[in-house]
Task: structure prediction
Amino acid sequence: MTGNMPMPFLIMREEGKSLELLFASQSFIPGTQAGETSGDVNPLKAVFSYIESHYGEKISLEDLAGTIHMNRNYFCRFFKEKAGKTPFSYLNEYRVNQAASQLLSTRLPITEIALNAGFENMSYFIRQFRRCKGCTPSAYRNTEDPKSLPIPF
Result:
């Protein structure tokens, strides 16, 4: 650990793939270590896979709960207990990270990138992007070294 940030956060900052690294190491799940699995965690893998495959589409709570055959109310509690955040917080962060990747690797208009990432409303996209990345999408694209941007908590 360096300072107050656990090692996974340092890796995320350097690689810019926070959710992918969190998922791969399961470090977002309280009480688990990297590479450790639990029978309670396995159902979330189907949810993460669904989000990864469908993040550009409209996703409802019923869609997510249905991937692991749960009631939507119980699913929300279950997901938050295991992942430490709500399903839609996770989904929005995943979408923002996908958009950030496209901002750096393409010259597509920001509106098109937002739509590709599953955001239907530009104002909401910009708000979520700023919350996750600490700056607007255009500032992120124009930053010479996005890795140097602070990670908002």
